Amino acid sequence: MRVIKLLIFAGFVILFLGLFVLQAWFNITKSDFSLQPLVYWLVFVVWIMVLLNFRLSSSWTLAAAFVLFLLAAALSTLGHAGTGEATMKISFIGWIIGIIQALIEYKKGHV
Description:
111 residues
């Protein structure tokens, strides 16, 4: 069962890298087509897969989201607004997952 989860995770990582390369190609060729919404959904699914696979707590998720938030703030301050914005969106995904995960943990512990 562990091998299957690892293969699924590896498939998502390969898909993510492929989408990243396609997005870079579309940016280089000045195409109007954007894969960014799909990439953010893929980040969401991979983040959930990592949580389920490694059984991480909400404190880990919220800490990772906070680190990404600080990184995004630093990037935006230093003049890399595009990268900072993308990092901020990924951080927001982490905040949403972390808060929902914390509510589920609270409900399981206090029912």
